[in-house]
Amino acid sequence: MLGSSIEQMNKLIYLNLRECTSLESLPEGINLKSLKTLILSGCSNLQEFQIISENIESLYLDGSTIQRVAERIESLRNLILLNLKNCCRLKCLPNDLYKLKSLQELILFGCSALESLPPIKEEMGCLEILLMDGTSIKQTPETIFLSNLKVFSFCGSSIEDSTELALLPFSGNSCLSDLYLTNCNIYKLPDNFSSLHSLRSLCLSRNNIETLPESIEKLHCLLFLDLKHCRRLNSLPVLPPNIQCVDAHGCVSLEKVAKPVTVPLVTERMHTTFIFTDCFKLNRAEQEAIVAQAQLKSQLLARTSLQHNHKGLVLDPLVAVCFPGSDIPSWFCHQSMGSSIETNLLPHWCNNKFIGASLGVVVTFKDHEGRHANRLSVRCTCRFKNRNGQSIRFSFCLGVWNESCGSSCHEPRKLGSDHVFISFNNCNVPVFQWNEESNDGNRCRPTSASFEFYLTDGTERKLERCKVTRCGMSLLYAPDENDRGFQGTRVTDTVERTSSEAFVPIRGRSHSQVGERRNGRMRDEMPL
């Protein structure tokens, strides 16, 4: 127990009693007028909380054994943060919780005995973050006013009215930006879901939804959509145009994807990743449609960049796609068995429409799972060499995933079969520098290029258990406004036409002969 002398510390601003496991209670009847922050985290024998200052702004009770919060909670007029994470014995919250008008963040994560929220009878206009993961709450109160809520997380909770979400506190909330509903027994999203105009991140993984409402296309601010392990999901509608990441890993019933997946914009600015790992019901036609959409989007992105004279090496892909399979699309004009390619390039391959390279690999996963399973990057080390022996070397990323969606419920991503990774990468600086500094009048000198593909755990450590068994590369060019690809038809025609004209056989070998070499190395390959 704290000594009585603490009552005289009138200028005390910060009090940290973290992990004081012998602390059972706080002294009654004192008011430390200057105290702003009180930390009681991990005080595992603290069963009752007494208010010792009415001016507290940050209160940490996480990991304590309290069963209820102080009844006079409304006296904490300046309280901004209330952290009750993993208070496993907490059974209820005070009925006057709504009187905390300054409260901005309420953390109830892991309060497994908490079964209900009290009615929010008045507007809590400052509350922006509400985390209720892992509670026993099945239904929010009928009276609730949280119009300024920006982040709401309810992972691992079985919503009682699982067919609709009308009772959740984000209903009609136009400020909500992050919504995490992993494993909530949800079967359907309401049609008026599009009213969440500010939504940027939406996590619906491990739910029972079969499709998404078509109105989701109207969520123009949506950047991240997590649908992992929605095992009943069988189709995807057109998604918002500014989406940056769609993760549908483990959607084993997914068969149909809207064509186009997203409506392409002439002024594309957003780089995008489409993850369809372990979506085994996606047939080849659906996969090709996804790749074609990715090609068009990458060309529009690069075209916008060229128009605005955005110079610089962009190592992350303009667009990346991955899905189950053992074959690289045939339009990759240069392919090889193994993990590397080397080729010679014709003069004038690097014209003013040149964007970069389309890269593709087939990766074999041998039950890849472990502490780095949720952080994986497929990379390519490239070397361009001119006829004078000068060379430049850099790395590209074909695809990456890391578990950033949701406030809990992370689990290893296990892949046991072959998967295809395809990316469209910008590459307009290193090669162009040579051309601009050239004195011989040739804009594009004959250049050789080599590509080595490998996987890492998201750092620089290579993953030896995951092997690249086949790889491919084609050059990528920005479309003119009159190009068929730019107008929304098959962009594969544009890519195949322009890239196939840029390559010559290596030492007299044809494309097919090169592609069938099974050792993954070409003769006289440059060391990397």
TrEMBL record:
Q: Where is this region: Disordered?
A: 508-528
Query: Please, which domain of life does this record's source organism belong to?
Result: Eukaryota
Q: Which PROSITE patterns match?
A: LRR (PS51450)
Compositional bias of kind Basic and acidic residues: 514-528
Q: Which UniProt keywords apply?
A: Leucine-rich repeat, Repeat
Gene3D superfamilies hit by this protein: Ribonuclease Inhibitor
Check the record and name the InterPro entries matching this protein: C-JID, Leu-rich_rpt, LRR_dom_sf
Q: Where is the C-JID domain?
A: 323-480
Establish whether keyword Oxidoreductase is in the entry. Answer: no
Protein name per its UniProtKB record? C-JID domain-containing protein
Q: What is the lineage of its organism?
A: Eukaryota, Viridiplantae, Streptophyta, Embryophyta, Tracheophyta
